[in-house]
UniProtKB/TrEMBL annotation:
Gene3D superfamilies: 3.10.50.40. The keyword Isomerase applies. The keyword Isomerase applies. It catalyses: [protein]-peptidylproline (omega=180) = [protein]-peptidylproline (omega=0). InterPro entries: PPIase_dom_sf (IPR046357), PPIase_FKBP_dom (IPR001179). Keywords: Isomerase, Rotamase. Belongs to the FKBP-type PPIase family. This is Peptidyl-prolyl cis-trans isomerase. PANTHER family: 39 KDA FK506-BINDING NUCLEAR PROTEIN, FKBP-TYPE PEPTIDYL-PROLYL CIS-TRANS ISOMERASE FKPA. It comes from the Bacteria. Transmembrane segments: none annotated. Its EC number is 5.2.1.8.
């Protein structure tokens, strides 16, 4: 799949994780604690400004889910290889409240994730 475009995700940032399947995959299912191979795009909810993209680096990335932000730990399990899912992560499931020391602390983040593999 090509790099996704995120144009509009809503007027008000959600208080809880919002999971939307854009494409439902038909491969192996990601389980809690799995290592996932993904392509992803991350933007800030308020501005839709891109802050990270594996497409920008030209290669997918492998992550153990248990080392990622809570929104990914909760939002990727159940996804199947070949799928594309959008996660809207409020601050408490991303990088914490404002002033938390990360440049994205206090921000609601939107990710579009393509699941390429699980192990």
């Amino acid at each position: 799949m090509d790099k996704p475009e995120i144009e509009f995700v809503g007027d008000e940032a959600p208080a809880e994780l919002v999971i939307t399947d854009i494409v439902v995959g038909d491969g192996a299912e990601a389980m809690p604690g799995a290592t996932v191979d993904v392509h992803y795009l991350g933007v800030e909810f308020d501005t839709l400004e891109e802050f990270d993209s594996s497409w920008g680096r030209g290669q997918s990335v492998n992550f153990p889910l248990n080392r990622l932000i809570a929104g990914w730990q909760e939002g990727i399990p159940g996804m199947k290889v070949g799928g594309r899912r959008q996660l809207v992560c409020p601050p408490h499931l991303a990088y914490g409240p404002a002033g938390g020391g990360h440049r994205l602390s206090g921000k609601t983040l939107v990710f579009v994730i393509d699941l390429l593999g699980v192990s």
